[in-house]
Amino acid sequence: MKPPICEVCDLDFRHELEKNPATGGLVYFSDYQSLDNGMVGHPKGLGWFCAKHLSDAQFLSSLSKRMAMEQLRIKFNNFG
Do the Cβ atoms of 30 and 63 come closer than 8 Å? Predict the structure, then answer.
């Protein structure tokens, strides 16, 4: 699985997350697909978000991750 780095702003909060879970979290989007047994990697439709972007990502969780990310990038002017 990918480390906790925000999908919107690239903030790496893995060290803060260990101390304070409120620093961010995972969002499961509508296209989430778990990995098959024995597989390693990052599941499709799953993303890490820092505390600043988490609630907006959760609000869009009924969308596919791709569609949600398009809206989040527009909202936060992050077109990278």
Answer: yes
Nearest CA-CA partner of 2 in 50, 47, 35, 69: 47
Say how many C-beta atoms besides its own lie within 10 A of residue 7's C-beta: 21
The residue extents of the domains of the chain are 14-75
pTM above 0.85, yes or no: yes
Nearest to 70 by CA among 8, 3, 5, 1: 8
| Amino acid letter, residue 3 | P
Query: pLDDT tens digit string along 10-61?
Result: 999 999 988 898 899 999 999 999 999 989 999 999 999 999 999 999 999 9
